[in-house]
Amino acid sequence: MSEYKRFDEKVWASFGKKLLPKDKGSERCLEEQRKFLAACQSGKDDFLKYLEHKGLLDNAVGDDTVHFTYQFTEKEFIYPPDDTQKKIWEAFEILPDEITCKCGFWAYVIIEMVKSGQIRPFFLASELNGADNTGSYMIDNALKSSDASKIDSCVRRILRSMCNPEPRGKRIVFNDFHLGKAYWRWQWADKMSSIMKRDLILKVLNEKYYAEFSARMHTGKTYIGSENIFGGLLLFLEKNRKIGSPKLQQIIERIKYLSVWKAIEAQTPKLNQKEIQEIADSLG
Amino acid sequence: MPDNLTLDFPILREDSGDFSEKIAYEVEAKQDDGKLHIEHRLKGCSFISNMIERGKAKFSVRLLYKDSSERQHHLYNASNPSMQNGVIAITQTITMDFSYAPEIMPSIIALKKEKITVNDSSGLTDFWRSGESFSIPGYARIAIGPKIKFSEGDVSHLMRLINDESLKDGEMKVEVNEYAGEGETPVTLVCGSDVYDQLAKLSQAEPVNPNKSMGWAIVTQALCATYAYMQSLEQGKKENVGGVLLHHLQMLADKTGKDWKDDDFEPSLAATKMHPYVLSVFKAGVDDE
Predict the structure, then answer these.
(1) Residues 6 or more apart from A111 whose CB is under 8 A from it?
(2) What DSSP line would sit under A207-231, residue for residue?
(3) Is A105 an 8 Å CB contact of chain B?
(4) CA B193 to chain centre
(5) Sign of the dihedral through C-alpha A33, A35, A41, A47
(6) Which sign does the torsion angle of CA B115, B117, B121, B127 carry?
């Protein structure tokens, strides 16, 4: 397998751990967090200098790189629309899943994007729920605040945008980190395209449903990641587009119990669609 | 997942109680050059062995590659195996899609709905009366094997084995050299012959299963003794440990949230949290002194 450039997973996790230590709110912790935020706000050179000073940039492993030159706006980076998601996926689809599931790989991608000006460091702090929540505003707000939790929260947001596992675990690649979320939604749609056309899967796996699935497929409920089961779910959702999240969650829970005694992973997607419809009907 | 699901038909699994003691489903796995070799063994005559021989049931595995959450299933599709010397045994060879081994969940699956009438060769206990019937739904798991995990070798860099014949059976001494530098092994397990023999069998190629838990448990005890020793050192000495233990200290903190510098560190708890049954082969050049 080609060795694509990435950061060592332990080194990358340790970087996040040092910014989110156990003594949250202590002077030592706040001082370091402020330095990190200030470097992020200041711009590319200072941000990269900070990362270099922390020994991160020397810990890249691998040789091969992926040619990805897309220039993002801030909003596009946080909420990539479908056509941007497609560009992200097309750039990385040649890579094996074993690489694209790694936090260290995507962290390297993000830092290369900062180096080449594709994103600006303060994008990483962006929320954009409201008009003012740009990354620059969020960092500024945190730095001017004496509220330790505000500073901590901003640091966490940046680390999540860099695909660091410390805030929310390694699963961040699939369901929280912006590029990874986009990539894996398309990757799943492509994987399942023998069952349904990819464009239709992407319509079915809209943001709401994909959030439901990705939260479960990459945590304890990975059983729905089996192709025949996921295929059944997609076929079911295609016929039941208005189903609400609570009911979908109940259905997924019932599938868990079914899979204990029944090898539904061996059943065809069509048969599984039928089973799932029966579950949905029984739930009323 | 619930362990004790009650259904209308019997399922063969460890401690299920429905099947006679002569009936057993065992699975072992090895990895070799990017391939998994999974050996299924169904022992004794039962309605399950009968269904397999007639092609009405098949051996199967579910694989979980944890890091990427990839799930696969593989049915053993070769021609219907038959019983030899009271055992139906087959080996599934599966090419791994990742560079690390998956978790393996073996089972035997009924391919279609089947009605079974209990008789003397059903392999069931007296709980099931002769002449009584039950239905098995299609795709039901009629036998479930234990989950098999290949674990990473986390602590092999830390320990080496020595066989000391002067020690009695069951005895082991844990010697810690806190100054061991890079390339050196800080922890030496000086073992009586029986303990040495048990530990020397542990290898990377074979996954953890209940039968090997004795060896792994001994290693956990050694790890606990090491941590207790490190915790007992004076503060100054704790700051000056050699590179190997220092590296391990970081790993310990990463994995368990605490290390031997913390006031509330519990060596025993930490040892069991540190992947208790994880060990690669002991370093080459195991000594006989």
Answers:
(1) A48, A51, A56, A57, A162
(2) HHHHHHHHHHHTTTTGGGGSHHHHH
(3) no
(4) 24
(5) negative
(6) positive
Beta pairing partners, B191? B163, B172
Give the pairing of strands B159-163 and B187-191: parallel
Residue with tokens 């959450």: B69
- What interface predicted TM-score (ipTM) does this complex get? 0.83
Contact with chain B for residue A106, Cβ under 8 A: no
Measure the CA–CA gap between B64 and B101, rounded to whole angstroms. Answer: 9
Domain ranges of chain B: 24-144, 159-288
SS3 B29: strand
Task: Tell me the CA distances in angstroms from A191 to A215, A283, A284, B70, one per residue in order.
Answer: 18, 30, 31, 12
CB-nearest to A98 from B98, B140, B141 is B98
- What does DSSP assign to residue B148? B
Q: Which residues of B touch A262 (CB under 8 A)?
A: 137, 139-141
Min distance B60 CA to chain A CA atoms (Å): 9
B24-144: CATH, from 2.60.40, 3.40.50, 1.25.40, 2.30.30: 2.60.40
Residue of B nearest to A170 (CA): B67
Q: What is the pLDDT of residues B14-43, one digit of tens each?
A: 877 899 999 999 999 988 778 999 999 999
Q: Where are the alpha helices (DSSP H) in chain A?
A: 9-19, 27-42, 44-53, 74-78, 82-92, 97-100, 103-115, 135-144, 148-161, 172-175, 178-191, 198-204, 207-217, 227-239, 245-261, 269-283
Q: How many residues does chain A have?
A: 284
Q: What is the pTM of this model?
A: 0.74
Which one of A22, A228, A262 has the shortest CB-CB distance to B137? Answer: A262
CA separation for the pair A74, A248 (Å, rounded): 32
Bridge partners for B109 per DSSP: B58, B141
Contact A263 B250 (CB under 8 A): no
Q: Does B197 touch chain A (CB under 8 A)?
A: no
B208 reaches A (C-beta below 8 A): no
CB A84 within 8 A of CB A144: no
Subunit contact B68:A257, Cβ cutoff 8 A: no
- Please write the tens of the pLDDT for every residue from B71-114: 999 999 988 899 999 999 999 999 998 887 888 999 999 999 99
Q: Give the pair of three-digit tokens for residue A205.
A: 């796996």
